[in-house]
Design brief:
This protein has a four-stranded mixed beta sheet, covered by helices on one side. A two-stranded antiparallel ribbon has the order 5-6. It has 171 residues and is of the alpha+beta class. The protein is 46% helix and 17% strand.
Amino acid sequence: RDLDIEFAFQYSTTVEPYTASFCNFIKTGSGGVHINAMREAVWRFLMKKTMDSLTEKEKEKFTILKVDIEEGMNFIAWLSTDMQMNLVGQTKDAVGNDEMYDPIKKLATKALEKYFDENKDKLNSLIKLIKLNCKARLEASKVKSAVIKENKERFSEHEYDNFTPCNNKGK
């Protein structure tokens, strides 16, 4: 079976990340198996490289999460194949052939390894950005914890005055 992929990603400061995907020159606006496989390959590759780059002190301080890698990532993916696409969704704009997942993921991982072996400086700048995202997430969590001083554990503590819950009392 013929299976060719191309993908690109970059980081930006936008709140909403941009994702575009295509399969056999058809825009797949809802993504599908091909984009999920490529994104997971990127995520796992960058996660491994970032975790490997952490010092012992950094490993004690924080853990890199998927959200740290995906924060601000814009992604575009293209797939060309003679395999059955199985377009799914109400508007048939997502690739649904699960048999493509593992081969696409392997191709994407191989492409990432080749590219970043030749461009170590770009990998290092991505690792710095991911570490920065992690630190920002941890600081935001500390601020949130400091602001939220009350810990309400029971539902009754959240009720409003003069509020009658809508319950069916069997009448």
